[in-house]
Design brief:
The protein is of the alpha/beta class. The chain contains 18 helices and 20 strands. Strand 15, helix 14 and strand 16 (371-375) form a beta-alpha-beta unit. The model has no long low-confidence stretch (mean pLDDT 94).
């Protein structure tokens, strides 16, 4: 396709005015733009928008007009004849290309398309919203009938392996846009531009397909328009993962140091699926969050002695020979957060939870000389962690009669989006300080209950930044721009809280 660029900005709105506003943004931010005419609320809105478009001066941008019918996965309810008429008007208004789904081309004689739309260049597309087709070669051959200028295959991918199969196929073709769809495929979608596909789509406002990253995030957070084959790839794996602000933290560090690197969130249900994608995606290191911090251990080739003792890993380095080496930086985050607030030597600290995060907290506190107590839903698991850390397990029913110097929540209870939940009730908070390792939201329900009782509270933000900058330094071998990275996360949290208040 003509032009250069890695992102195609998608303009989609039910109203002509919304399309106009988005198009102005798209022209400033991308060299490819797709106009989803089918999103407009009827023929009158489409005609109104195209009349305005024809009166504008167009920048040097490749503009693709799309008016996808419902049969092909779009929103347009009109006839094929009316669809083609809108695309013809779009070409007259200055569009270079048009996207025509295979469902329409199968109903139109090639001669009719040539007469009506021969002035423009055709991107012929096929969309598979349920699963990836088995025979991609056959799909591509069908799309190339009639000799379009380029083809597009978009397919729902239920695994990273399926996403990679689609992109590997695209790399063997010429003039093809390959789009893996779905949340699991989202990071691969961003990386696709360095794996053979012509560009990736990013909506200005409204997502038009599952797994899309907004234009603003694609450019500002991930710097996707700068990705090339030398870009170092890092990421965070978890389930769920949409809540994570690790990409904000780590990418801020890469941008500040002007490194050609990107950090992406991976929704991982199946660890083996992710591990199989490390080589093909060129991943050099990754963070680990719930529920994989302990599960990852059996897949490592080596482990830092401290992480091995803790029994949980939150950081992995992929060495040159593809071997995986694990670390635990949660330990660092705990100590940096609590040592400045209370003397840990001889203090009595209750830890809520017995998972990977709780293990890091328990061993950090034990090494600092604290008396460790553990409480969890499964008392046997709590006892196991307490024994390993040289502490004691306490059943929840006993908590009202106990007193602690600090209580640390190392469970996900209260994490976004379940912000109204708390792992403890107010009358169970018998302590001087409550530390919630959750950072999103900054003020959890647990911290609110503690503050009402006059108890000192500590958000998980400081621990999050401390452990994350330690990861960054392990991967890069350089000193992390701590203040810059912290400000980026704080700004993101403040913006989120502000928008939440408006809702």
């Amino acid at each position: 396709m003509p032009g250069t660029g890695k992102i195609c900005a998608v303009v989609a709105s039910p109203h002509a005015e919304g399309m106009r506003q988005q198009l102005r943004t798209a022209f400033r931010s991308a060299k490819f733009v797709e106009m989803r005419l089918d999103w407009l609320a009827g023929d009158a809105e489409i005609d109104c928008f195209l009349k305005w478009l024809g009166a504008q001066k167009h920048p040097k941008t490749t503009v693709i007009a799309t008016c996808r019918r419902r049969e092909g996965g779009g929103k347009y309810r009109g006839s094929v004849a009316k669809q083609l008429a809108h695309l013809w008007n779009a070409l007259r208004a200055g569009c270079n290309w048009y996207d025509l789904e295979v469902e329409t081309t199968q109903k139109c004689p090639p001669e009719l398309l040539e007469v009506m739309l021969g002035e423009g260049r055709q991107l012929r597309s096929a969309h598979f919203f349920e699963h990836i087709p088995r025979d991609l070669k056959r799909v591509a051959a069908q799309l190339r009938l009639g000799k379009p200028d380029a083809i597009k295959i978009a397919a729902q991918c239920g695994s990273l392996a399926e996403s990679l199969r689609l992109l590997k196929f695209a790399a063997s073709q010429e003039d093809i846009v390959a789009i893996p769809m779905g949340e699991i495929a989202a990071p691969v979608r961003i990386l696709s531009v360095r794996m053979g596909t012509l560009f990736t789509y990013a909506p200005v406002e409204h997502a038009t397909a599952p797994g899309q990253t907004s234009l603003d995030e694609a450019k500002k957070l991930y710097r996707a328009d700068r990705i090339d084959r030398r870009t170092a790839v890092y990421g965070v794996i978890g389930d769920p993962i949409g809540h994570s602000l690790s990409p904000v933290l780590q990418n801020a560090g890469f941008a500040a140091r002007r490194m050609n690197a990107i950090y992406l969130p991976f929704l991982v249900h199946d660890l083996k699926d992710f591990l199989g994608a490390i080589g093909p995606l060129g991943i050099k290191g990754f963070s680990i969050t719930i529920p994989h911090k302990e599960r990852i251990l059996r897949h490592l080739d080596g482990c830092d002695p401290l992480a091995e003792k803790i029994g949980a890993v939150n950081t992995v380095v992929v060495r040159g020979n593809g071997q995986l080496y694990g670390y635990n930086t949660d330990y660092v985050g705990v100590l940096r957060t609590l040592q400045t607030r209370i003397p840990l030597q001889n203090s009595r600290v209750l830890i809520l939870g017995a998972g990977g995060a709780a293990r890091a907290v328990a061993f950090a506190l034990a090494e600092a000389g604290a008396s460790v107590c553990v409480s969890g839903r499964r008392i046997e698991r709590a006892r196991s962690l307490a024994r390993a850390a040289g502490g004691e397990a306490i059943a929840r029913k006993q908590l009202r009669g106990e007193f602690f110097d600090a209580i640390v929540n190392a469970t996900p209870v209260g994490m976004h989006p379940n912000v109204r939940q708390s792992p403890l009730d107010a009358n169970e908070l018998n302590c001087r300080l409550v530390f919630d390792t959750i950072y999103r939201p900054r003020e959890t329900r647990l911290l609110q209950l503690a503050a009402r009782r006059g108890i000192q509270t500590v958000s998980g933000l400081d621990m999050f930044v401390a452990q994350g900058t330690a990861q960054w330094e392990i991967w890069t071998g350089e000193r992390a721009p701590y203040d810059t990275m912290r400000r980026a996360v704080l700004r993101a949290l403040e913006q989120e809280e502000k928008s939440g208040t408006k809702r």
